[in-house]
Amino acid sequence: MSAFESVKNGLEEALAFANGDTADAKVHDVTVTSVNVAEVRQQTGLSQAAFAKSIGVAKGTLLNWEHGRRHPTGPAQVLLALIAKKPSVVQDLLRGA
């Protein structure tokens, strides 16, 4: 099967799923635990500015998360869950450890 055919088949499957045809669909239900962002940041020992920079978000975004005005979603939620388990994970990776 060519790359084009593979992509075409994948898109057709996605469209069928979006239209409610789940017969051949592989659905993965992934649950990421919500975290207390301020608590996670405090575990790292970083200031708000340094923590925001280390995870690639604006300080304002971090403040909104910490104050409960917004909640991290998607990759940010996963990253924060990882940091909650191992607070040094970002620094270790950035240092090449």
TrEMBL record:
**Keyword 4Fe-4S appears in the UniProt entry:** no
- Give a single Pfam family match: HTH_3
* Sorted UniProt keywords: DNA-binding, Transcription, Transcription regulation
| Molecular function terms, GO-annotated | DNA binding
Under SUPFAM superfamilies, the record lists: lambda repressor-like DNA-binding domains
Is the keyword DNA-binding in the record? Answer: yes
The HTH cro/C1-type domain, residue ranges: 37-73
**Taxonomic superkingdom:** Bacteria
Q: Which Gene3D superfamilies match?
A: lambda repressor-like DNA-binding domains (1.10.260.40)
* Designated name of the protein: Putative transcriptional regulator
Q: What is the lineage of its organism?
A: Bacteria, Pseudomonadati, Pseudomonadota, Alphaproteobacteria, Rhodobacterales
Q: Which InterPro entries match?
A: Cro/C1-type_HTH (IPR001387), HTH-type_reg/antitoxin (IPR052359), Lambda_DNA-bd_dom_sf (IPR010982)
